[in-house]
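As a warm-up, study this chain.
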Amino acid sequence: MVKKILISAMTAMLLLTAGCEQPPQNNQPPEDPKPIEQPQKTAPSKPAEKPAEKPVDKSKPVEPKEKSMEVTVYYPDEAGMNLVPVKRKITVTSDKDKYLAALNCLLENPKEEELTKIFPKGAKIIGVDVEKNTAVVNLDSGITKNFVGGSTGEEFLINSVVDTLTEFNEINQVAFLIDGQEVETLAGHMDLSVPIKRDR
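Now compare it with the structure written out below.
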């Protein structure tokens, strides 16, 4: 009996001892998980920048370039028999200026002794416009006030303008205005109501 009691007591003690034993505790804090490294994004390479262009100063007008050219103009001879072609150099800034520049030569006294000026003193040529194959010459009214040439002088004056302008390939006839208005005649002898063609 006593033996059974001892065995039971010993068994109880073993169980108590086993219950009191605990697995060793690890007091170190748990390690943080390593962060997953994200692949680094590289910034896209910028294209090479072009050198800055100098700003154009639009406030200053661009001056047109002058150019020289040779033209043929017609003066009457001193005998009043013929129109004589002579060469003159003109300077223009645009192609359309050549017509007026050529006619302005006729307002000057010719260098050649055997030739004479037919335009009256104080006469002016306002402008020349070319429409298709017709040159429209706008004369100042001073040409009619001071003209004293008669029928022959009127013919020479008109034909000197016509022959000079028809030297340009793009012109084959000339119309006349005075102060921008259509006229029937210059001095009462030639019909200027229609364009004049070169007759020689």
